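Example 3.2
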Amino acid sequence: MILSKRKVDAEKAWEELKVKFESGEVFEAEVKDVVKGGLVVDLGVRGFVPASLVESHFVEDFSDYKGRKLSFKIVELEQDKNRLILSHRAVVEQEQGKKKQDLLSAIEPGQVIEGTVQRITDFGAFVDIGGVDGLVHISQLSHEHVDKPSDVVQEGQKVEVKVLSVDRDNERISLSIKETLPGPWADIEEKAPKGSILEGTVKRLVSYGAFVEVFPGVEGLVHISQISHKHIGTPHEVLQEGQNVKVKVLEVNKSDQRLSLSMKEFEERESNEAFDYELPEESKGFSLGDMIGDKLKNLKQ
């Protein structure tokens, strides 16, 4: 009589594994070996974990997985073919899904959260805020104009973001970095006090005046009456977009984000300074007659 305890143990193992498979149970097991294409796990019978089912991200080298304990789910079971396929990735994704749902339920618009830039696209940046990625649209990266998101943020960078909206049905979160930064109008009274002279760029010309950018994101209006001492029909007669000009601050209104500017007032100041200019010391005490008298005498002779 030939007996086999191993076959009895294998039959018992298959029965236990069928229960786990049907219930979707998650269990721990040790990785016994690393082979070409994946991992081998001993569960009383040989279980195989294909490389694509080990992690939710790409792994180049599995050599350090041998001897590690991981959580698994059975994804395929065919006893007659002695086929047992396991997945650690399914467990990881299940945990991530639960974490994502918990976060989506808890997060509210207006919250400020720390996150990590995961991915950069042409239209913005995706930021991980604890297991869930939210989108920071390119318009929400900075108070200044942004041509490329990569000019402002880099992958792996830690950033503070403000939650703008949460779409729980479609699992979408809109975020803003701009909302966590001081606005361009912050401390404007200190940066542009009334009476100060600033240099700016003409951004827009309209029928009633010109909008001049004096700081990134801060534009002030030069009313048509404050452009020149001469009468002009439209600002286009003396100005063009992109032109650099000097202006005087007439009024600052931080709450309404308004800045009243004048080019004419600056011209007045320049002309007054020119009028008050003193002659050099060496020329004082000499009259016009003194300077040209000798030449006049020569002419008479």
